[in-house]
Amino acid sequence: MNYSETSIAATTPFLSLENVRKTYPGVVALDGFSMEVRPGEVIGLVGENGAGKSTLMKILGGVTTPDSGTITVDGTAHDRLSVEGSLGSGIAFVHQELNLFENLDVAANIFFGREPLRAGPLKLVDRAKLRTMVAPLLKRVGANFSADTQVATLSLAQQQMVEIAKALSIEARLVILDEPTSSLPLAETDKLLDVIKALKADGISVIFISHRLHEVERVADRVVVLRDGMLAGTLPKSDIGHDQMVKLMIGRMLKEREKASEAARAPGATALAAKAIRTPAYPGRPVDLDVRRGEILGLAGLVGSGRTELARVFFGIDSKLGGALELDGKPLALASAADAVAHGIFLVPEDRKLTGILLDLSIAQNISLPNLPAHARRSLVSSSAETATAEKQKKDLGIKAPSVQTRTGTLSGGNQQKVVLGKWLAMNPKVMILDEPTRGIDIGAKAEIYGLMRALADAGVAVLMISSDMEEVIGVSDRIAVMHEGQISGILDKDRFSQENVLLLAVGKQPK
Amino acid sequence: MSKKDLGLLILILVVGAIVALINPRFLLPINLANTSNLIGLFGILSIGQAFVIITGGIELSVGSVVALLGTLFIDFIAVRGMGWPVAFVLILVLGAIIGLAHGWLITRLKLQPFVVTLCGLLIYRGVARFYTGDGTAGFAFGQNFPDLEFLTAGRSYGVPNSFIALIVISIVMWVVLHRSVFGRYLYAIGKNEEAAKYSGIRTGRVVIAAYVICGVLTALSAIYFAMYTRSISPASHGQFYELYAIAAAVLGGFSLRGGEGSLIGVILGTVLLQELQNLVNLLGIPSSLNFAVMGGVILIGVLVDQQWGVFRERRLMVDATRKSAAGAAAE
Fold first, then answer.
1. Is residue A381 less than 8 Å (CB to CB) from chain B?
2. For chain A, how far is it from start to end, CA to CA, in angstroms?
């Protein structure tokens, strides 16, 4: 390790991890990971989706137990931390999704469950005392709102300040901020970065996790880069720079993907076109995108860049706020998912269990659901027609289940995903949108799903694949569109495919 | 018939046998006819309720609708001299409109079913009382409608026609709920409305249709109740009927979370409730205890069912662990 000799480096670390390893069935999430955090130090923690950041956070929060390794907090070595132990030793979290009671005021949120009480048997909350306790905390985070403001009326950045004040109220010595700026507009982000500097001035350590590398550049004293569960490198203050971080994140050895086996296909006609579409997630950012017949268009970008929201508009779940959609050159109006389905636009959603399938229904019932009238005579469901369709999909897709009457809830993730695919393949897809189609699926099933997407494209279907898996995006797509904060930051043709280019576009820079 | 339904049927037979042993009058034709008439009346509105509950909703205004539409029906034919077939159809249409309004408020304006139908409960009761000037709606002396009376309060071969009507409606609604495309949509929405929507189902329309069906069946039962009592004081007529209907559905295995329950179940639930009412009368239990007995039995029934489910799940898990342990040992 190569820290520069600053005054911080001289002090003993507040937290140090040594050789921490954590495996999940089939995956090594963290492998021999070591890092140190000194008092008053701001660490930027970066890495791609799936690099192991969340696992690391879970270990520090005491939510998961590492398989091996040592965690030393404030001089005491532990094999593992418990939730209470983590909190007790002064580690506080501010998560991407805030944990606030929106219907309560700021003071009540900060001291929730620890309210000062008045004497007497009724245990009434001592509001006056509560306010005197909250005031200095709010001042420390530079809040411009009062303690009795309803949290629901605060902006996101202000809500984050409440969370940080909450962390300070338990006398936190290390505050971990997980993607705190991903949903903040620019001006609010500046406020938050100021709060981080204030914490640092008070001698509190901060771990700042972010995909927005320029913010990391601005506040971090040191950057720790994770890749594939391992420490890819540490950058001292003097070496922190955008390019260095990207290089470490994707590895020095840029794997040259085997160039597409086939010659570049002649692009088909545009099937689905978005013209200046504005989604509810980023109302001020119009999106233009063409999905052509016979191609797999990869849609890359960081979590929260607005990809799923775009897919929801294409599928009629959310209505667009502006712009126009076209299908095969004709204007397309979508009032509901039913309209999209009627036009042959299908979505394999990101959250399989909540929106993809009905876990309580059988494979056959799930597959026939979008096209039930076709499986019915005089609006009575024909179970033989239903079974026949399901049997065909089960065979074509290789769904492993005792029978098509099996409840889908009992199937493995990969097989559930095949059921979702099956229900659309049984109809005639024109545009197939797949949102993280291989998340949580084992490698064998992944390959099969790639094969299916390619077969669909070869049959003339326009395929739009949203994915956070860089290898997948580069390996499967014919073209890659990259989103950054609600907009398409660039579209790469096959000859410009590289992890570096995708990542640069994903953080809002232009590729070389 | 599912195991749950079978258990309920056995319970009905056992309770019936005990009552018959203690008081043989239970089996007199006149008692059986009276009880089956009541089963017919309550069964029709319970089926309506079941269609709403399956979507995860609830319809609390049933009792007030029975009062309002019953009052209107008697007023139409006895006072305004409307032909009864016309009035009959008009009342069903009014029931449909009420259901449509509830469904629209719930799906389009995103109000909670409990709130919408609770307001309905208050509104319709108030309107009914206002309409009659808080008086009683009834027929004048000597006013007769032979055909209508035969269809609603009459008997064929000793069987009340209301009960026969229930059987016919049950068969039709069984097909709708358990065999039709619409029925499948209802279950899918009850299980997971979001996933149903992502499968391209127009969930709003389906839910509205469920409330319309409930409204029409409630209107039909309102006519039957009106012809059964022949005079209606809107302040009390039909009070708590929504609770009878909900109780019948819950006893019949419906989950208030939606997506679960069968038509046979709700019919058997109605039968059990009316059997209990009859039991209270026949066994000389003070009629003031009526509700307490019903509440107690429903609670015990639901408790046994739930505990049985827990027990079964645990046994399945033990079996699975044993199997996988055996598999591991074999390797």
1. yes
2. 30
